[in-house]
Amino acid sequence: MSQKIAFLGLGVMGAPMTANLVRQGFAVNAWNRTPEAPGITIAGAAGANICSNIAAAVRDAEIVFTCVGDVPDVEAVILGPGGVMESAAVGTLVVDMSTIGSQAARMIGKKLEENNLRFLDAPVSGGDIGAKNGTLTIMVGGKETDFQTCLPCFHAMGKTIRWCGEIGNGQAVKLCNQVLGAVHMVALCEALKMAKIQGLDPHLVIEVCKTGAAASWALENLGPKILAQDLQPGFMIEHILKDLRLVKETAQTAGEILPGTDLAATLFKVVAELDEGKGIKQGTQAMIRAYD
Q1: Is residue 281 among the annotated active site residues?
Q2: Helices (H), ranges, the chain
Q3: Domain tally for the chain?
Q4: Which residues form the 3-hydroxyisobutyrate dehydrogenase-like NAD-binding domain (predicted)?
Q5: Do 125 and 217 lie in a common domain?
Q6: Does residue 143 share a domain with residue 13?
């Protein structure tokens, strides 16, 4: 591929996404804030060029991807000292794949445009499984021409790629996705609790229900993890709580409440406080611990 790529953020999601870009023939410079992170090994083993700072990673890049944590992290990497805005060439396309909400995305897009850089917000869904398999759902906001430019890269990382309209709209769709994911987890945990109450084999319940109207990604992918007591994070409780905070802020701005989402957030917070606060690092399927 002729496009030169930089990927900033080699966490649970970013590292396999970077690896998939390399496997599809893209030349990728990669950087991570924490030098000893396992993701650096994953990206490097795939063939990414690991850089020691953002400037070195983005200097020659035509497209710069970022995939980090919360709004302050994205702002620091893109807008902060030594960040993308200072180091990227004029006209570079910056694509943030974090989940930060529409307001932050629009602010970042505006500042980049003022500095002759382009921007897409492109949050993803599918967890670590989708990141590893290159089957992510990618929701994109920004100019359609920039979306088309980036499409070959998106196809390397995802299966379902949708342009959602102007900057911020990708984030807007992602927040809807997070509402569904959070409330589906409540439903999954309560279904498994109901199976236990009735003396049913929970494996049977999953196998039957995943073929009918109650089917969901959570049921099929996280249900078996719960039964195997595998609470390792594909998506941490820490991160879903951040996303649900953004959902709540957005709803409150409109004077609305989302009772089901509030319940999910409460249950995630219960688990986050377990093990002297270490529960926050477990996967979202650990919500089941709130029902023990």
Answers
A1: no
A2: 14-23, 38-46, 54-58, 71-79, 84-87, 102-114, 127-133, 144-157, 169-197, 202-209, 217, 223-227, 237-253, 259-272
A3: 2
A4: 168-291
A5: no
A6: yes
In terms of C-beta density within 10 A (0-12 exposed, 13-18 middle, 19 or more buried), how is residue 79 classed?
middle
Domain boundary, last residue among 108, 131, 165: 165
| Long-range pairs, 25-33, Cβ under 8 A, ≥24 | 25/1, 26/1, 26/153, 26/156, 27/1, 29/4, 29/5, 29/56, 29/57, 29/58, 29/60, 29/61, 30/6, 30/57, 31/6, 31/7, 31/56, 31/57, 32/8, 33/9, 33/68, 33/77
- Walk along the chain (292 residues) and give the pLDDT tens digit of each residue: 568 999 999 999 999 999 999 999 999 999 999 988 999 999 999 999 999 999 999 999 999 999 998 999 999 999 999 999 999 999 999 999 999 999 999 999 999 999 999 999 999 999 889 999 999 999 999 999 999 999 999 999 999 999 999 999 999 999 999 999 999 999 999 999 999 999 999 999 999 999 999 999 999 999 999 999 999 998 999 999 999 999 999 999 999 999 999 999 999 999 999 999 999 999 999 999 999 9
Containing structural domain, residue 264: 172-290
Are residues 196 and 69 part of one domain? no
Which residue among 132, 174, 225, 242 is the active-site one?
174
Shared-domain flag, residues 238 and 215: yes
DSSP state string for 161-179: EEE-SSTTHHHHHHHHHHH
Residues 180 and 161 in one domain: no
Query: Quick one: 116 and 9 in the same domain?
Result: yes
Cα 227–Cα 233–Cα 235 angle in degrees, nearest 5: 110
Residue at which a domain ends, from 120, 135, 165: 165
